[in-house]
Structure formats: structure tokens, C-alpha cells
Amino acid sequence: MLDIAVPDPPDDEPESYPSESVQKLLKPSSVGAFAPEKPNIWWVRDRPSEIYMTMITKEMVNETGGQHGFWTTFSTNPKSANYDPANFNRLSRWLESQGIEAPPQVPVGSRRLGTRFKNWHK
To answer: What local confidence, expressed as pLDDT, does residue 4 receive?
Structure first.
């Protein structure tokens, strides 16, 4: 059983939430809030350095008309292309405000590639 809040989908929406594609990626250690047609904010206890925001909606598609919705990752790892500690903290605070377990917040560092690693080895 996942430790997530999953509201019932609307009567006119037959798709399950979280979507099947997201369910395949969730682990028993996944924590978050899921709702149809709204951003789903979640994280995995095994990876507390990342928070995910996903949304499944038929109106948002890729360039070929498939893969409904979007997925973005906010990471605290300066070596990651998804490094965004300020938004990671914002989502962590939001999870806490909803009464949902959240990963710990981190110091906010520069996202500029040229300055990310100056203090990395200190």
C-alpha cells in the first residue's frame, strides 16, 4: 500500500489516478498527493534529493500527440540537470502544509552552471 493521498477521480473521468504510467514508477516508499487534472507532487523515500511534479491531462501532449501530460523533476544535486533547490524547497513546504511527509529542505545554491561547483569539494 502506497503512503499517498489519492482522491476519487471524477465520475466522468474513467482513467485511474495516479495514471498507470506513474503507478509503474511509484515504489512502496513513494509519498505525495495525486488528483485528476491537477499537478501531482510526490517523492520517493529512497531518493530524498528529488521531488516530482506530474500531471496527466489529455490536452497536454508531446509533438506526436501521445504521452498525455508532463513530468518534471526538482533535484538538490548540483550535478543534476534538474538542480533547482529553491523550487525543491517550495514543493517540500507545500507537501508539509498538506500534512504529507516531505523530504528535508536544503540550502539554496546558485543554479548557474559556472558557479555550482566552486564549493563542491570543500
So the answer is: 45
Nearest partner of 84 among 114, 105, 70, judged by Cα: 105
User: What pLDDT is recorded for position 109?
Assistant: 77
What is the domain partition of the chain in residue ranges?
A: 3-101
Residues 60, 63, 66, 71, CA torsion sign: negative
Distance CA 29, CA 71 (A): 19
Q: What is the pTM of this model?
A: 0.69
Q: How far apart are CA 116 and CA 55, in angstroms?
A: 29
Mention every residue, 6+ apart, whose C-beta is less than 8 A from residue 24: none
Helix H or strand E segment including 93: helix 85-97
Classified as helix, coil or strand, 81 is coil
- DSSP character string of 13-78: --S-SS-HHHHHH--TTEEEE--TTS-EEEEETTEEEEEEEEE--TT---TTS-S-SEEEEEES-T
- Measured from the Cβ of residue 84, the count of other Cβ atoms closer than 10 Å reads 19
